[in-house]
Specification:
Number of strands: 10
Largest sheet: 10 strands, antiparallel
Order of helices and strands: EHEEHEHEEEEEEHH
Radius of gyration: 16 Å
Length: 175
């Protein structure tokens, strides 16, 4: 018989795509008002892994990673994704998003992303939201799966998530 255990609190991470810096700044204020102090903001760098978003968002498109000081329960990711969808709509022009917020969470062993798109490896968690393990941590580094998006396979993303993981590790030590 399995024994149910409480899961550790996890680190909320929101990778952001944007084409207009002023829209990004406004969206950042909104997510900070909802989820608290941002304790990590990566450099802003050109997103050039695909042109999938160009027609909708315009170009050039930039990527930035945000993480939040307050740890969350992993089951909260579903509602966070639903809220970030509403934030995207708030800043959209017509049906074209100007900011793309992809919330996920990081714990010591994995990085999870929430999405509205079903695929064979994603698990339905309710209310139109799926989650996937995008990366796993093994042998002191982030590893990817065959389904991991090309950008999340990059050393740059893995390095950024490694920095966030170190912040999270210190938070756990202080609990």
């Amino acid at each position: 018989m399995g024994i149910e255990k409480k899961h550790s609190m996890v680190k909320l991470v929101i990778p952001v795509l944007y084409s207009e810096k002023n829209i990004y700044e406004k969206a950042k204020k909104v997510v900070s008002s909802l989820y608290g102090k941002i304790d990590f903001e990566s450099e802003h760098f050109l997103f050039n892994f695909t042109d999938y978003y160009n027609e909708e968002m315009g170009s050039p498109i930039f990527r930035v990673f945000l993480s939040f000081e307050k740890l969350i329960k992993p089951e909260k990711l579903l509602e966070i994704k639903r809220k970030t969808n509403r934030i995207e709509k708030k800043f959209a022009v017509g049906n074209r998003r100007k900011v793309n917020l992809d919330p996920g969470y990081l714990c010591l062993g994995k990085f999870i992303l929430a999405t509205t798109k079903d695929q064979q490896h994603r698990i339905y968690v309710g209310r139109g939201i799926y989650e996937e393990v995008t990366l796993f941590y093994k042998n002191k580094s982030w590893q990817h799966y065959e389904w991991t998006y090309p950008d999340y396979r990059s050393e740059k993303y893995k390095e950024i998530l490694g920095q966030i993981r170190e912040i999270y590790k210190k938070q756990l030590q202080n609990c």
